[in-house]
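Board notes (copied after class):
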Amino acid sequence: MLARLAGEMRHLVPFDGGAWFATDPATLMPTLPARVEGMDPGLCEVYWTGEFQQQDVMLYRDLARSPRGADTLLHATDHVPDRSHRYREFLRPQGFVDELRAAFRLGGHTWGVLDLVRETGRALFTAAEVDTVAGAGPVIAGALRAILASPSSPESDAHRETPGTAIFDRDGALVSLDGQAEFWFGELAGPDWDAPVPPPGMVAVASVVARAAAVASGRERGASTSRVRAANGRWISLHASATRATGGASGLTVLVLQSARSTQVAPIIAEAYTLTPREREVTEAVARGRSNAEIARELCLSAHTVRDHLTSVFAKVGVSSRGELVATLFADLYDPVLRRPGEGLAAGT
């Protein structure tokens, strides 16, 4: 899909290099699918380190909150691109003179981001081209959201349920890993995950590791985590944490990869289907086996209102029964039976 989208975009807004990333709507961390063309993949760590550890213009998190959701480097720097760390360390060394970035937003969430660049000697991006990209944002966001909501058929065995651990140095380079981490990297990026030129599937790894260092330094807050949907449809949880040496100096970064729990992924699936907070509560109660009358009592609603909510949920998810609903939203996430209140999703854990 991203390859076709890039081809269409190239006709409307010509570019020499581009990067497309789906994002976790809760954290804005890049996930899959991802596509990088015309840029040096060997500078992946430089790219994400700058995104999380440098003060710069047009950071994705800022674009996601901006009114327009898109801008160009030269406009953002008043035509003095050297003000940008990303320009000095990533764009200029590759011969790029201008950059157009955008956040794809829909339903109050950011479902993807875009980075287009042009080489020295080419015309600069225009305001009309920025409008074109911004105008396409909701459509692209909807397509990415649909990918996250599509059903999957994950395998289930002990090997796939065991976490993996990988260690990275302060520059974001992999220094050691266990066999399970190697397995999960293969799930994310295929058998050539450790190639000299990292495949797009390793984007999520590089960004989570880079953000962990930013959290450790105080530049970012919260945990460095992401939920990534691999090419086979399986959801994988990534969590990175930067350590400190006994003397206080920055140490290594530890990355843990494992199969994502239903409680981690259900919220993003609910967002993808645009369920309202009340519709989610009703859906979770259905997954726990509650009848309409029981749901009405639990949520202090009338039975008629519960039926209305279920009718809306069925229409959004594209199902016609409670069993189909639970299977679509939860069975694919490896935990088809939600636990009782206080033990899982119902409690918000």
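Comment from the instructor: The longest strand covers residues 96-106. The longest helix spans residues 127-149.
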